[in-house]
Specification:
The complex is a heterodimer of chains A (about 110) and B (about 110). Chain A is an all-beta fold. Chain A has strands at about 5, 10-15, 20-25, 30-40, 45-50, 55-60, 60-65, 70-75, 85-90, 100, 105-110. Helices cover about 0% and strands about 55% of the residues of chain A. In chain A, the strands form 2 sheets. In chain A, strands 2, 4, 5, 9, 10 and 11 form a 6-stranded mixed beta sheet that branches. Chain A has a 5-stranded antiparallel beta sheet with strand order 1-3-8-7-6, with no helix packed on it. In chain A, a hairpin with a 5-residue loop joins β9 and β10. The radius of gyration of chain A is 13 Å and the shape is globular. Chain A starts with a strand and ends with a strand. In chain B, a hairpin with a 6-residue loop joins β4 and β5 (about 45-50). Chain B is globular, with a radius of gyration of 13 Å. In chain B, the strands form 2 sheets. In chain B, strands 2, 4, 5, 6, 9, 10 and 11 form a 7-stranded mixed beta sheet that branches. Chain B has a 4-stranded antiparallel beta sheet with strand order 1-3-8-7, with no helix packed on it. Chain B has about 110 residues and is mostly beta strands. Chain B is built from no helices and 11 strands. The relative contact order of chain B is 0.33. Classes of the chains: A mainly beta (about 110), B mainly beta (about 110). The interface of A and B includes residues 42, 88, 92, 97 and 103 of A.
Chain lengths: ~110, ~110
Amino acid sequence: QKEVEQNSGPLSVPEGAIASLNCTYSDRGSQSFFWYRQYSGKSPELIMFIYSNGDKEDGRFTAQLNKASQYVSLLIRDSQPSDSATYLCAVGTGGFKTIFGAGTRLFVKA
Amino acid sequence: GAVVSQHPSWVICKSGTSVKIECRSLDFQATTMFWYRQFPKQSLMLMATSNEGSKATYEQGVEKDKFLINHASLTLSTLTVTSAHPEDSSFYICSARQGGAEAFFGQGTRLTVV
């Protein structure tokens, strides 16, 4: 079982819709959770981080964490074509390691 | 967010030569830096964790004698790919932690070994 799992996609949504990206992790002791966006040929950029159960909102982005289910998600409201990218879920394990999922490719159709 | 600068952004080298990649935290002190490798359409693979002033911790399967990591100061870590071969061609990315758990990435270095 992979430590951090994501659906590889591609996930295709129309412009203006809500994109929902999901991630599960295996280490119950994980304390920190991150979403990164990576455009093709570029390095990842941090979008959101969340440490506590529940929702965290930042602009059009909402991160949701459920530690009991070992599940973290990212919602993108009013999706724009510029949101088209690969979204990486990352989980901070014990110590200093951050484990990345394989990423979900998102396409937002104009 | 914090700024991490990586240099060079791309490099082409001949097989058998060595290449050094620099990773600098510009506006914060990074006690821990990470080096990743990413092949096309694949996820980031952690190569090693680098702590300032101590030896790097390499992930299983990563040759420490081939990928030399130095973290001499709180703002600089270097990765040297020694005796590079075409199979080492990849996108190498560093990241640094500011103090919290979130890490910030450098721009990445695309290495092509010919």
